[in-house]
Amino acid sequence: MGTSASYRAPARPRWQAFVAALTQGAPVDRVRSELFNAGADEWQSEISTSAVATFAEAVARLYDDMPRRLLQGDRADVVLADIVAETRHASGQAGFSAASAIAERAFARLLLSTAQGAADDAVATSARWTAARGDAPGELVARYVGEVLGQYARHVSDREAGTLAARQIGSAASAQLTESLADRASSIGASTAAEALRGVGDVSSAWASVVTLVFEAGRQIPGPPS
To answer: How far is the C-alpha of 72 from the C-alpha of 87, rounded, in Å?
Structure first.
């Protein structure tokens, strides 16, 4: 399984069903369901690995540690870059995953979004982190899960850009479709993980089961309103 947008979906029925839904104007929830159904084998397995769990474990530690790291550093942007590099190394030590690049992008996005940037001094960045991190480490980890699933959706949607272009879907519409799909995937990932992680102290031991629950939830299509 590649991680480059130049790779097309595998020629297997589940992936072809996703491509058909994506390119033929199916409702976003149908596309999202096919996305999670198609990835239920290799992508679910790759995201469940220790290499990706390492990033989630770092998120849980940083819930409390980030303010200290920021206040001990000279510049907030350097501190965040160092944390990303350290966690990338730890992930590599934990093993290989084809989802590692996705996990790292999600990790960096979570740090920056929670700190609301890193251009200000360490004191201001630390205060923003503390205000935005949530009520418990599990809440922040759940947001990380959402980021991972959003990145997963962007990857598999963007690699079909050629097919979308062949069907004369404009670049703006294609980008909007990708973001809508990523938003749905991220929302399901975060909400499902938040419930699964409530009261959980050890993220590493729970990680694989959380990913399983997220993929199960992602495959569901909302029923008609009652």
So the answer is: 18
Per-residue pLDDT of the chain (226 residues; tens, 9 = 90+): 444 334 456 667 899 999 899 888 899 999 999 999 999 989 999 999 999 999 999 999 999 999 999 999 889 999 999 999 999 999 999 999 999 999 999 999 999 999 999 888 899 999 999 999 999 999 999 999 999 999 999 999 887 765 555 555 666 667 788 899 999 999 999 999 999 999 888 999 999 999 999 999 999 987 665 5
Distance CA 112, CA 127 (A): 13
The two three-digit tokens of residue 188, written as one number: 């399901």
CA dihedral (157, 161, 163, 164) in degrees, to 10, reads: 90
Which of helix, strand or coil describes residue 106? Answer: helix
| CA-wise closest residue to 15 among 136, 108, 7, 204 | 7
Buried b / exposed e across 111-137, counting CB within 10 Å, b at 16+?
A: beebbeebebebeebbebbeeebeebb
CA 58 to chain centre: 15
Q: What is the rounded CA–CA span in Å between residue 63 and residue 136? A: 8
Distance in Å from the first CA to the final CA of the chain: 41
Helices (H) and strands (E) in the chain, counts: 11, 0
Closest C-alpha among 191, 183, 108, 210 to residue 143: 191
Give me the residue spans of the domains in the chain: 33-38+139-219, 50-136
